[in-house]
Amino acid sequence: MPLSHPRRSALSEQVIAALRAQIASGEWPVGSRIPTEPELVEQLGVARNTVREAVRALAHNGLLDIRQGSGTYVVATSELAGVMHRRFAGADPRHIAELRSSLESWAARLAARRRTEKDLKQLDALLLRREEAWESRDAEAFVTADATFHMAVVAASHNDVMTALYADLGEVLRDWLRDDVGGDMSPETHMDHSRLVDAIRAGDEATAAEEAAAYPLACKPGRFTASAGD
């Protein structure tokens, strides 16, 4: 439905909210190119300058990346996610792995305690999708499938704060995973996540936590550089 409002500032805020909603809902997933400026003008029924202002505002907040000659792409699902991505994009991979291990371990422990039948069905479906992505040898498809699976594990903890924090770190963790997977998708590098799902299903908190904690730290040999404290 076209947007309309007599005041330019209020109208601009409406457009920003509309674009943000498209991103937050997953209609425009991270990595996707949003519609062109003329397309957005037609969809929203507002002036080109209003659309341009809204897009620039979301780019400034870290949700969008304007690439001259290519288009505008979604890089984060919220303002905080954009800040997280900018803040930690160059972080030591070891530290990202340790953070992910800590978060996912506690989330898996809680998931084993609180999971519902709906959660288990979701995990089963996403585990299958993850395996299919691995078999396809499509690295980007696997990164997406793996990230979605782990997000579902965290969501099964039914801890809203932990889930929101993990989601805001999502693109940082996906960058880490892209680097870890690289082009090496050979059978010997594959990590089976079925034991994690089995532990959550059985309500085995200790095993679920152990399995989840181990995955991020089981990286390719030489991935991390030893630090002075090791």
Automatic annotation (TrEMBL):
The keyword Aminoacyl-tRNA synthetase does not apply. Keywords: DNA-binding, Transcription, Transcription regulation. It holds the Pfam family FCD. SUPFAM superfamilies: GntR ligand-binding domain-like, Winged helix' DNA-binding domain. Residues 9-77 form the HTH gntR-type domain. It comes from the Bacteria. InterPro entries: GntR_C, TF_FadR/GntR_C, Tscrpt_reg_HTH_GntR, WH-like_DNA-bd_sf, WH_DNA-bd_sf. This is FadR/GntR family transcriptional regulator. It comes from Streptomyces prasinosporus.
